[in-house]
Design brief:
Strand content: under 5%
Largest sheet: 2 strands, parallel
Number of helices: 6
Bound molecules: zinc ion
Distance between the termini: 25 Å
Shape: globular
Helix content: 55-70%
Strand order of the largest sheet: 1-2
Radius of gyration: 15 Å
Protein backbone atom coordinates (compact mmCIF):
# COMPACT_ATOMS: atom_id res chain seq x y z
CA UNK A 1 0.00 0.00 0.00
CA UNK A 2 2.78 2.36 0.95
CA UNK A 3 4.55 1.66 -2.35
CA UNK A 4 1.37 2.37 -4.33
CA UNK A 5 0.89 5.73 -2.61
CA UNK A 6 4.53 6.65 -3.23
CA UNK A 7 4.24 5.69 -6.89
CA UNK A 8 1.06 7.74 -7.29
CA UNK A 9 2.76 10.76 -5.79
CA UNK A 10 5.71 10.34 -8.15
CA UNK A 11 3.29 10.28 -11.06
CA UNK A 12 1.67 13.46 -9.76
CA UNK A 13 5.07 15.17 -9.55
CA UNK A 14 5.90 14.18 -13.11
CA UNK A 15 2.46 15.39 -14.16
CA UNK A 16 2.99 18.74 -12.41
CA UNK A 17 6.32 19.22 -14.13
CA UNK A 18 4.64 18.96 -17.53
CA UNK A 19 1.93 21.55 -16.92
CA UNK A 20 2.85 25.21 -17.40
CA UNK A 21 0.30 26.28 -14.80
CA UNK A 22 2.68 26.76 -11.95
CA UNK A 23 6.30 27.51 -11.30
CA UNK A 24 7.85 24.17 -10.59
CA UNK A 25 9.12 24.47 -7.05
CA UNK A 26 7.41 21.46 -5.57
CA UNK A 27 10.35 20.57 -3.30
CA UNK A 28 10.21 23.99 -1.60
CA UNK A 29 6.53 23.55 -0.81
CA UNK A 30 7.06 20.04 0.55
CA UNK A 31 10.12 21.07 2.63
CA UNK A 32 8.28 24.02 4.17
CA UNK A 33 5.23 21.94 5.00
CA UNK A 34 7.36 19.29 6.74
CA UNK A 35 9.15 21.97 8.79
CA UNK A 36 5.85 23.54 9.89
CA UNK A 37 4.11 20.25 10.59
CA UNK A 38 5.65 20.09 14.06
CA UNK A 39 3.14 22.77 15.10
CA UNK A 40 0.12 20.77 13.97
CA UNK A 41 -1.90 18.81 16.50
CA UNK A 42 -4.03 16.80 14.08
CA UNK A 43 -4.34 15.88 10.39
CA UNK A 44 -6.56 18.82 9.52
CA UNK A 45 -4.09 21.29 11.01
CA UNK A 46 -1.29 19.56 9.11
CA UNK A 47 -3.20 19.96 5.86
CA UNK A 48 -4.00 23.62 6.57
CA UNK A 49 -0.35 24.39 7.42
CA UNK A 50 0.75 22.77 4.16
CA UNK A 51 -1.86 24.55 2.10
CA UNK A 52 -1.38 27.89 3.89
CA UNK A 53 2.40 27.84 3.55
CA UNK A 54 2.00 27.20 -0.18
CA UNK A 55 -0.28 30.22 -0.48
CA UNK A 56 2.10 32.50 1.43
CA UNK A 57 5.16 31.40 -0.54
CA UNK A 58 3.42 31.83 -3.89
CA UNK A 59 2.02 35.20 -2.85
CA UNK A 60 5.35 36.70 -1.76
CA UNK A 61 8.00 34.85 -3.71
CA UNK A 62 8.38 34.62 -7.43
CA UNK A 63 10.59 31.64 -8.02
CA UNK A 64 12.47 30.88 -11.18
CA UNK A 65 9.99 30.60 -14.02
CA UNK A 66 10.70 27.19 -15.37
CA UNK A 67 11.84 26.84 -18.93
CA UNK A 68 10.52 23.46 -19.99
CA UNK A 69 13.70 22.67 -21.90
CA UNK A 70 15.58 23.02 -18.65
CA UNK A 71 15.59 19.29 -17.92
CA UNK A 72 18.40 19.71 -15.39
CA UNK A 73 16.24 21.89 -13.18
CA UNK A 74 13.20 19.62 -13.52
CA UNK A 75 15.34 16.61 -12.56
CA UNK A 76 16.85 18.56 -9.63
CA UNK A 77 13.48 19.49 -8.16
CA UNK A 78 12.07 16.03 -8.87
CA UNK A 79 14.93 14.29 -7.06
CA UNK A 80 14.70 16.55 -3.99
CA UNK A 81 10.94 16.00 -3.89
CA UNK A 82 11.30 12.23 -4.25
CA UNK A 83 13.81 12.05 -1.36
CA UNK A 84 11.55 14.20 0.85
CA UNK A 85 8.59 11.95 0.05
CA UNK A 86 10.54 8.80 0.76
CA UNK A 87 11.80 10.04 4.12
CA UNK A 88 8.77 11.95 5.38
CA UNK A 89 5.61 10.62 3.73
CA UNK A 90 4.71 8.28 6.57
CA UNK A 91 4.95 10.92 9.29
CA UNK A 92 3.86 14.05 7.41
CA UNK A 93 1.47 12.91 4.69
CA UNK A 94 -1.29 15.43 5.45
CA UNK A 95 1.06 18.40 5.44
CA UNK A 96 2.63 17.16 2.19
CA UNK A 97 -0.75 16.65 0.51
CA UNK A 98 -1.81 20.15 1.61
CA UNK A 99 1.40 21.66 0.28
CA UNK A 100 1.02 20.28 -3.25
CA UNK A 101 -2.79 20.40 -3.50
CA UNK A 102 -2.99 24.02 -4.78
CA UNK A 103 -0.70 23.27 -7.73
CA UNK A 104 -2.45 19.99 -8.55
CA UNK A 105 -5.89 21.63 -8.49
CA UNK A 106 -4.86 24.59 -10.66
CA UNK A 107 -2.93 22.32 -13.02
CA UNK A 108 -6.00 20.14 -13.57
CA UNK A 109 -8.21 23.19 -14.17
CA UNK A 110 -5.75 24.65 -16.67
CA UNK A 111 -5.52 21.35 -18.52
CA UNK A 112 -9.29 21.34 -18.89
CA UNK A 113 -9.47 24.93 -20.08
CA UNK A 114 -6.39 26.43 -21.68
CA UNK A 115 -8.05 29.83 -21.87
CA UNK A 116 -7.82 29.98 -18.10
CA UNK A 117 -4.04 29.84 -18.35
CA UNK A 118 -3.82 32.41 -21.14
CA UNK A 119 -5.93 34.86 -19.18
CA UNK A 120 -4.24 34.13 -15.85
CA UNK A 121 -7.56 33.15 -14.30
CA UNK A 122 -6.29 30.53 -11.93
CA UNK A 123 -8.59 29.36 -9.18
CA UNK A 124 -6.30 30.50 -6.38
CA UNK A 125 -5.48 34.22 -6.15
CA UNK A 126 -1.85 33.44 -5.26
CA UNK A 127 -1.46 31.76 -8.67
CA UNK A 128 -2.89 34.69 -10.63
CA UNK A 129 -0.37 37.11 -12.11
CA UNK A 130 0.71 39.64 -9.49
CA UNK A 131 3.91 41.32 -8.48
CA UNK A 132 5.72 39.41 -5.76
CA UNK A 133 8.06 41.44 -3.54
CA UNK A 134 10.72 38.72 -3.63
CA UNK A 135 11.96 37.56 -7.00
CA UNK A 136 14.46 34.77 -7.37
CA UNK A 137 16.48 33.80 -10.40
CA UNK A 138 17.42 30.21 -11.23
CA UNK A 139 20.47 30.02 -8.96
CA UNK A 140 18.67 31.64 -6.05
CA UNK A 141 15.72 29.28 -6.46
CA UNK A 142 18.06 26.28 -6.48
CA UNK A 143 19.85 27.68 -3.40
CA UNK A 144 16.62 28.16 -1.46
CA UNK A 145 15.41 24.68 -2.44
CA UNK A 146 18.66 23.10 -1.24
CA UNK A 147 18.58 25.08 2.02
CA UNK A 148 15.00 24.06 2.85
CA UNK A 149 15.75 20.50 1.80
CA UNK A 150 18.84 20.30 4.02
CA UNK A 151 16.76 21.05 7.13
CA UNK A 152 14.67 17.94 6.38
CA UNK A 153 17.32 15.52 5.17
CA UNK A 154 17.72 12.45 7.36
CA UNK A 155 20.95 10.50 7.25
ZN1 LIG B 1 1.61 27.19 -6.38
Amino acid sequence: MRKVTMMSLMMILIFLSSVPAVAFTTSQHISTAILLDRYAENNLQSFILGFGSHAIIDWYVEDYKINYNDKGYIAFDGILSAILLKQHWQEHKWAIVGSIAPDIIDAILVLQDEQRWNEGKHLFPFHRPHRQPIRLNRNETVGLSVLLFSFNLKF
